[in-house]
Write a structure and sequence with these properties.
single chain, about 170 residues, alpha+beta, Aminopeptidase, two-stranded antiparallel sheet, 4 helices, globular
Length: about 170
């Protein structure tokens, strides 16, 4: 079990950047046709015995907070949920009304996770990954379980600061 959730700092940022480069072809990701430089996104890490075991990044624009990266290096221990809660709190603190994210059609584990957490499926953007590959050609053609990566699934939670029930 993780021992703490902490803001990403200058000391933890290099680890996160290495993980994104290794596991996401980073530092850039694409969501809804926008190329994001994850090195500029704030976030949180989950720490266990001095080791980072998960991290989450987000981007706030207006009253929207997009979760841009969420990765657990030890799944099934509750760290993903703890990171999402920390991001939602940061979004609430910033006055955001909506927390949203994109995952791809192959990532069935993430799709289940976000729905269990309470995110609603807002939209399925058919063949959006083909457009994303124009901005980031290294996006693979197939992903989890050999499923072709083609579509973006957009999930959201609509939030209001006085409804902080994810603590």
């Amino acid at each position: 079990m993780y021992s703490s959730i902490e803001r990403i700092t200058a000391g933890t940022r290099p680890f996160v950047e290495r993980q994104i480069a290794e596991n996401w072809g980073g530092p850039y990701i694409v969501t809804r046709g926008v190329l994001h430089d994850t090195r500029t996104h704030p976030g949180f890490v989950a720490v266990e015995n001095g080791m980072i075991i998960a991290y989450g990044l987000f981007h706030i624009s207006g009253d929207n907070c997009e979760i841009t990266v969420l990765e657990s290096l030890r799944q099934g221990q509750g760290v993903g949920s703890a990171l999402v809660k920390a991001i939602i709190k940061a979004a609430d603190d910033a006055g955001c009304k909506r927390v949203w994210l994109i995952t791809t059609n192959d990532n069935t584990r993430a799709i289940r996770f976000y729905q269990r957490f309470g995110f609603a499926l807002k939209a399925v953007h058919i063949n959006a990954v083909n457009e994303a590959r124009k901005l980031k050609p290294q996006i693979p053609l197939t992903g989890c379980d050999g499923i072709p990566i083609a579509h973006e699934f957009e999930f959201e939670i609509r939030r209001f600061s006085n409804e902080s029930n994810y603590d």
